[in-house]
Amino acid sequence: MPQMTGMKMLEIMKAQADLVHVAVIMLTSSDRPQDFARAAAAGAADYVIKPFDPQLLKEKVRRLLQQAA
Q1: What would the pLDDT profile of 31-46 be if each residue is shown by its tens digit?
Q2: Which 3 state secondary structure label does DSSP give 60?
Q3: What's the number of domains the chain is made of?
């Protein structure tokens, strides 16, 4: 993202009452455990590391949609 990091965007979203309920899957090249922990603490619903298997992402989205239903 050219204007800000995905983490910053997540923090902004989760600080807004009308967006706090939106499930966010972080899609990133970072595999550092501290980044995963920070994303989870900030409210990320899941975390996928690039390069990724599209089927894995599809399953994660499906799971989140089922939880929301």
Answers
A1: 999 999 999 999 999 9
A2: helix
A3: 1
